[in-house]
Amino acid sequence: MKVLWAPWRMVHIGGPKQAGCIFCQNPTAPDPREVLVLAVGEHTSVMLNKFPYANGHLMVSPRRHTADVSELSVAEWRQLSDGLRATVEALREEFSPEGMNVGMNLGSAGGAGIADHMHWHVVPRWVGDTNFMPLLGEVRVMPEHLEAVYDRLRPRFEALHLP
Length: 163
Ligand SMILES: [Zn+2]
Fold this sequence. Notes:
Order of helices and strands: EHHEEEHEEHEH
Number of strands: 7
Bound molecules: zinc ion
Radius of gyration: 16 Å
Structural class: alpha+beta
CATH topology: HIT family, subunit A
Strand content: 15-25%
Largest sheet: 5 strands, antiparallel
Strand order of the largest sheet: 2-3-4-6-5
C-alpha cells in the first residue's frame, strides 16, 4: 500500500511503537487528542484510525477486550450501537459525505488489523473518490492531516452521551 502524502506515518515510524491493544489503552490515555480518541463511554469508545482509508475514518469499539460479538452483553452492544450511530451522524454533519462504509472485519482472515478486539470501521465516501484507484492501484491520497480532522470532529463528540 502506497500513500502519497501522510505525515502521520512519519510520526508513526519515528515514534515508539505502541505495545498492547489501542482499543484498551487509548480510551484511558491522559491526552485523548494525542491518541485521537473522540469519545469514551462506560462500554464504548470512538477514535480516529491512524492509518485512514479516507479522511474521517473512525473506529467504534467496545471497552472490553473481546474478539467475539456474541460475548458482548446487551448493555455493551447497545452502547456500541449508539456510538456507531452517533459517529455516522457526526461525520455526516461535519464532512457531508455522499456515502459511508460501515463495517467490521472479524478475525485475521476477515481482514482485521487488530483481530482480538472487535471494532466498527466508519469511512466517509464521496462520489469519484475511488475513480483514480483502478488507475493507480493501491494508492491513497490524504489531503487533510489527522489532527485537523480530530479538531473538526471533537466538538461534535463532546456533546455525545454514551450512557
Ligand atoms: Zn483490547
